[in-house]
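Q: Given only this backbone (156 positions), what sequence would you predict?
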């Protein structure tokens, strides 16, 4: 029994001590530089800063097409790429720029609203981009009078 314990002890001592190499010698300096470069690039993100986040068309007649432009600037330190712009309704069509917006540059997001609905109407536009938040939310609103309706207000 003592011989078995002695043999197992010797075998384990040889096995555990032979694998001890200096771990830092296995690190390749090229990989470290590449990882540092990648980490630095990941810190560079675009920031989408809008002049306004909401537009009010006021009072309009039903079916009257409306158009507005949301102006924005890339205040970040990487090119801004808008991947998608969706509306909460088919009556509102966003038209985002297709090309990347460089840091410090400005762009425009054109919105077309067909004037459908009645009374107070609010629509949202979700802009998906490569920003840190990933998306921005814009709103348009209008008070839509039915076609041919008399104007609201006191009658003389």
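A: Predicted residues:
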């Amino acid at each position: 029994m003592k011989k078995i314990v002695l043999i197992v002890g010797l075998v384990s001592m040889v096995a555990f001590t032979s694998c001890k190499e200096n771990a830092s010698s296995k690190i390749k300096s090229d990989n470290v530089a590449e990882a540092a470069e990648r980490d630095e690039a990941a810190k560079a993100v675009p920031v989408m800063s809008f002049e306004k986040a909401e537009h009010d068309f006021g009072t309009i007649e039903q079916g009257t097409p409306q158009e507005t432009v949301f102006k924005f600037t890339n205040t970040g330190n990487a090119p801004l790429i808008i991947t998608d712009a969706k509306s909460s309704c088919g009556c509102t069509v966003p038209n985002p720029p297709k090309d990347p917006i460089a840091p410090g540059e400005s762009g425009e997001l054109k919105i077309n609203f067909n004037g459908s609905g009645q009374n107070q109407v609010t629509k949202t536009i979700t802009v998906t981009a490569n920003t840190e938040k990933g998306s921005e939310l814009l709103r348009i609103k209008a008070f839509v009078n039915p076609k041919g309706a008399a104007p609201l207000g006191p009658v003389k």
